[in-house]
Amino acid sequence: MNTRRTGTRRMSRHQIACLRLGLVCLSFVTYLWICGHWHRSTKWEILVDVLAESLGHPNFSNIRIYERDLPQHSLPRILYREMERPRYVFFANAVNGLGWNNVLQEQLLNAHLAHLSQRAYVFPDFTPSDHPPFPDKLPNGSRHLLHIPMNAFLSGPVAGGALSCDSKDHLLRRAVSEKWWDVLCPRSEVVVLNVQQTMLEILLDAASDGKEILTKWVHKLASISDPCVRVEGGSVFDYEFFNSDRLLSIWPSYSESPILENFAWSPLITAALFRNSHLFSADPPPPFLTPYEAGRTYGFTRFLPLPVSEQPISGLLAIHVRRGDYEAQCMLLANSGAQFCGWNALGTLPRSKYPLEPQIPTQLDMSDAEWREGGTLHHCWPSPESIVARVHTVRQDAVVIRGQKLKKLYIATNGDPVWVRNLIQMLAADGWDNVSSSFDMEFELEERAVAQAVDMAVLTAAEVFIGNGFSSMTSNVVQTRLAGGRDRRTINFW
Ligand SMILES: *[C@@H]1O[C@H](CO)[C@@H](O)[C@H](O)[C@H]1NC(C)=O
Ligand SMILES: *[C@@H]1O[C@H](CO)[C@@H](O)[C@H](O)[C@H]1NC(C)=O
Ligand SMILES: *[C@@H]1O[C@H](CO)[C@@H](O)[C@H](O)[C@H]1NC(C)=O
Known about the structure:
Elements: H1 2-42, H2 50-54, H3 61-68, E1 88-91, H4 100-116, E2 120-123, H5 150-153, E3 176-177, H6 178-184, E4 190-194, H7 195-201, H8 210-223, E5 228-232, H9 239-242, H10 251-254, H11 258-261, E6 264-265, H12 267-275, E7 306-307, E8 313-321, H13 326-335, H14 368-380, H15 384-402, E9 408-413, H16 417-428, E10 434-437, H17 445-449, H18 451-461, E11 462-467, H19 472-483, E12 491-493
Parallel strand pairs: 1-2, 1-5, 2-3, 4-5, 8-9, 8-11, 9-10, 11-12
Antiparallel strand pairs: 6-7
Helix pairs in contact: 12-18, 13-14, 18-19
This protein binds 2-acetamido-2-deoxy-beta-D-glucopyranose (3 copies).
Residues 278, 428, 434 line the site of one 2-acetamido-2-deoxy-beta-D-glucopyranose (NAG).
């Protein structure tokens, strides 16, 4: 009896073991099937855009594949338990068509807001309608806008990169592309927040201060448990906000954000800097601009992203000379008594409401009346003579204050080529080893689409910088330089 009973027990244990093994195998196969199925059914195809091709637009197909295959884009959602399901926020009506720098400044702050709200940020493509770098008119006269993937510009957290530099961040918190949002968040599951209504609800208006806007929106977004939130009907941080000093009280929180601290230019931009590095330095390119041969899965990862925290390019002074259509804009600004915009105002003006230490020195010690009369124009639309004089002073100060010997000069500009050539001659006569400009850059097709950001990467990487305080491009360079830990005294204005 005992023996038989033991036998029976042994038999059943054996059976149970088999059964368990079977179950484990079965669930493993099911898991693989679900993963595979999910993978197949959610991976979007990279389609050929015939119209874009006919206009000669680059298709960024390697970057598109890279974006599609970001690790956070392939996790099978149905395997999450409810608690673990990631949460997202999509700012559907953030400004997009305007210039790249208006778009960028808002994307970065929205990403910071998403981060504080414990939601993954959703990043869109950039579709330039102002100053498109390629023709976009079809033969019948309608426009077919150029589409540039975010990862052609950037590699940091705002474009789906890691939120921490050791990559030990939570995958589910990383930004996702708008395409992946479409997969994850069908309309029926989306909670919609209208910007105007929400502002009424949380007691914000057009005069609210930046810190208050940020805090209240964080609270609102974090209080919603639904995974998919779409903010529409306007911008949380709109164009007027960026041109007011209401922005500045966000800086203490934003300057410590992983969004800004881990900001990096894309490998496409690193490649362009490498090809043109003779313009910036007589030395061989530094390691962070040198090709990286190990990971060749995607053509463009032969170069690494360029984090703003890299060492500056020694001996380089880079200046932003905004011209082109800017004269009329400068007149407008002068007539309205405008002050520096965006992050340019960081501690620059004695009149600033938020004197953050240490201050960025400027030439702006003028009275309001003087400022209105000639100050704005002088700083917004400087003459070639005043550019030469300012560059001279900044070079002298660099030696005196920090012992920096500046030798090469790079001019990021959209000016008339003849005017720029004349300026280069005047500057070269003042004793620079070498003076070059945006017109000397050699680009491949895809790089040409992001040429403005390539210039910004040079302005960020230079040892010393002079910019235009009224320009959002300069403002974005100011924030990336500060993010990279550059000394504030290396940031100057006309
Ligand atoms: C993208 O452009 C390249 C080069 O012009 C071409 O070889 C490739 O087939 C294009 N891919 C797509 C998906 O359009
Ligand atoms: C112009 O041509 C494009 C491409 O064939 C088409 O999609 C678009 O609707 C046309 N626009 C007009 C106004 O006919
Ligand atoms: C500037 O540098 C380029 C490339 O190194 C060189 O070809 C050119 O002659 C230099 N120009 C001057 C004025 O030194």
